[in-house]
């Protein structure tokens, strides 16, 4: 085994984990909100994009990436909550078609609004100096920033899992996902729980938007790119299934991470191949047993 | 009053009586098609050019609505078929420039229908959100192909300088000047029969009832002996074929094909076009297309960010006018009818 090949493998593995982290952070909220509320939010990745632009604006005015990471997701989640309360609640009992149409319209409005404020051009956001360097591992020199992205995703996942599994609030949320009427009858405000879940989903996607900004820049089409990818993850994983989304995001990470090392010019097709493969074996997605 | 009575008796004598709604709908259809046919004699050349775009977009929106209205399936990747047909036609013409126009259109539409048959097997298996998301990814896939396969599709540059030279029955006519009334009428000569055939099939035959039965209660239709999967698949193929007609004619009208005709925003544009006109009426999307082209032309001259109005239109239609313009007109018409009915009593 040559040394060069080992370093390629290491680079591929790091890309895989980075992609996995980012795409799962984006898709998790989409699939959870669908699973709990039966609501399909096509504007989900528009909020992710909004977080990227917010991070850009904060970094430009204050120079601090850390401030952007702390503020932008909160701002975006709050905007999301306002939109959910004002618009989405009217459609929780409507058809998926109406939900998709309304949220696609919202995605248009957010995308054009971002263009009005920030223009058509792409922006780059510099990572904080401490993360800007590279480190070497098995002969490969790799960007430290990738490690940062992976750790952000890990920390967020751990915090949310602990909250869900280990706290009373988490227990109520899990119960509300399965028996909303019963949880409501016990005196909990199911509506508030829904809003909370919605906000956490957007918060995750917004965190992805912020950490994505130094990696791939902020540009007008980023919402659409992420939307297609998230839909692939959510459909192949099974609508509403968080473990499914996690596994498919990992599969996409592998083909993207290693595929783009070895066959970079066809990378754009990999997600479709994964989706086709999964649906051939399991037409309802990996964990999509129930009718959706 | 006596006139309406007379009309009723004569209609009854001719055979099974049509409901007044069906009669009004047919009258509106005839009026709309007549207006489309005579329009070029009244308007300027640039408007004729816009009209050509509008009727192709309108047929495309009708093909989308075939799935949405009659099968309850919301496709988010319908531009895949439109774009496929447009590219297929351009490539056919580049290989055989002398191909007669009818043969060209038939070949393009057949290949699009076959594509619809293949993709439909996957898409139609599930309805609701799954269908929408699957079609969206298929649309994204076709965009990726058109974008990446530069050797065949020309990538972002697209394909141009193809024009059918052999019009067979019309040796004196030429398509070399897009935007003329000649091109427009030639397009209508193919477009209207295709749309009318689909209309007749779905509105006036038992087949249409079967499609609607499967939509309204799939289980019950299955118990009645319908092959519900087959019915949905057949409607999907018909929709793909009609989108193919629209794409083929659009390519002729434009003389140019680019990734704009397969991208995702085109797939969502066609949804808003259909809903604007009113998805509840077969021809509603055609009305929507004419309005859309007229309005978007003016808005885009006004501001580069006119697409924000598209978003507002989506939100507004879903919240306030789910049946579109045709629905609004219909409800006003019904109010007039009931008022007249009351006066008669």
TrEMBL record, chain B:
Signal peptide: none
GO terms assigned for molecular function: branched-chain amino acid transmembrane transporter activity
Keyword Transcription regulation: no
GO cellular-component term (any): plasma membrane
Subcellular location(s) per record: Cell membrane
Residue spans crossing the bilayer: 27-45, 51-68, 99-120, 127-146, 183-202, 233-252, 264-295, 307-333
Bilayer topology: Multi-pass membrane protein
Keyword Flavoprotein: no
Keywords (A to Z) from UniProt: Cell membrane, Membrane, Transmembrane, Transmembrane helix
One Pfam family from the record: BPD_transp_2
Family matches, as PANTHER family: ABC TRANSPORTER ATP-BINDING PROTEIN (PTHR30482:SF17), HIGH-AFFINITY BRANCHED-CHAIN AMINO ACID TRANSPORT SYSTEM PERMEASE (PTHR30482)
Protein name (Swiss-Prot/TrEMBL): Branched-chain amino acid ABC transporter permease
Annotated source species: Acidisoma cellulosilyticum
């Amino acid at each position: 085994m040559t040394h060069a090949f080992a370093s390629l493998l290491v680079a591929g593995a790091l890309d895989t984990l980075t992609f996995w982290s980012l795409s799962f952070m984006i898709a998790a909220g989409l699939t959870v909100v669908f699973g709990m509320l039966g609501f399909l939010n096509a504007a989900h990745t528009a909020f992710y994009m909004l977080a990227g632009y917010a991070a850009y604006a904060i970094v430009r005015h204050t120079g601090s990436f850390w401030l952007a990471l702390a503020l932008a997701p909160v701002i975006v989640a709050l905007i999301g909550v306002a939109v959910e309360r004002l618009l989405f609640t009217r459609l929780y009992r409507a058809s998926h078609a109406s939900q998709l149409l309304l949220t696609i319209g919202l995605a248009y409005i957010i995308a054009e609004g971002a263009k009005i404020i920030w223009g058509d051009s792409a922006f780059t956001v510099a990572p904080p100096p401490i993360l800007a360097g590279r480190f070497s591992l098995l002969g490969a020199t790799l960007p430290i920033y990738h490690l940062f992205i992976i750790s952000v995703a890990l920390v967020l996942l751990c915090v949310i899992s602990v909250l869900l599994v280990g706290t009373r609030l988490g227990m109520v949320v899990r119960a509300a996902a399965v028996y909303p009427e019963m949880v409501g009858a016990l005196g909990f405000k199911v509506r508030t729980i829904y809003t909370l879940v919605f906000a956490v989903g957007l918060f995750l996607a917004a965190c992805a938007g912020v950490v994505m900004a130094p990696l791939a820049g902020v540009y007008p089409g980023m919402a659409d790119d992420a939307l297609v990818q998230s839909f692939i993850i959510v459909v192949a994983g099974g609508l509403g299934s968080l473990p499914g989304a996690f596994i498919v995001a990992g599969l996409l990470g592998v083909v993207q991470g290693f595929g783009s090392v070895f066959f970079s010019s066809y990378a754009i097709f990999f997600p479709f191949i994964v989706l086709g493969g999964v649906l051939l074996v399991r037409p309802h997605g990996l964990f999509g047993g129930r009718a959706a | 009053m006596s006139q309406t009575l007379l009309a009723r008796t004569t209609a009854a004598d001719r055979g099974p009586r049509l409901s007044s709604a069906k009669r009004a709908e047919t009258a509106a259809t005839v009026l709309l098609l007549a207006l489309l046919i005579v329009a070029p004699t009244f308007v300027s050349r640039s408007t004729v050019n816009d009209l050509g775009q509008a009727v192709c977009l309108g047929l495309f929106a009708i093909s989308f609505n075939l799935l949405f209205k009659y099968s309850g399936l919301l496709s988010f990747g319908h531009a895949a078929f439109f774009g496929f047909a447009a590219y297929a036609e351009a490539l056919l013409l580049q290989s055989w420039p002398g191909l007669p126009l009818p043969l060209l259109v038939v070949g393009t539409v057949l290949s699009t229908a076959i594509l619809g048959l293949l993709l439909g097997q996957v898409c139609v298996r599930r309805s609701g959100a799954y269908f929408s998301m699957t079609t969206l990814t298929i649309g994204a896939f076709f965009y990726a192909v058109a974008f990446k396969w530069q050797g065949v599709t020309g990538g972002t540059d697209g394909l141009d300088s193809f024009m059918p030279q052999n019009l067979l029955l019309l040796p004196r006519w030429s398509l070399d000047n897009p935007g003329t009334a000649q091109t427009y009428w030639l397009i209508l000569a193919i477009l209207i029969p295709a749309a009318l055939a689909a209309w007749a099939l779905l509105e006036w035959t038992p087949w249409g009832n079967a499609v609607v039965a499967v939509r309204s209660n799939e289980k019950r239709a299955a118990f009645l002996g319908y092959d519900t999967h087959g019915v949905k698949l057949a409607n999907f193929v018909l929709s793909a074929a009609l989108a193919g007609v629209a794409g083929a004619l659009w390519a002729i009208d434009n003389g140019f094909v680019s990734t704009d005709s397969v991208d995702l925003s085109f797939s969502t544009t066609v949804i808003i076009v259909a809903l604007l006109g009113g998805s509840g009426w077969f021809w509603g999307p055609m009305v929507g297309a004419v309005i859309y082209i007229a309005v978007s032309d003016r808005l885009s001259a006004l501001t580069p960010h006119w697409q924000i109005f598209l978003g507002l239109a989506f939100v507004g239609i879903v919240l306030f006018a789910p049946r579109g313009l045709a629905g609004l007109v219909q409800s006003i018409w019904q109010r007039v009818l009931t008022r007249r009915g009351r006066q008669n009593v």
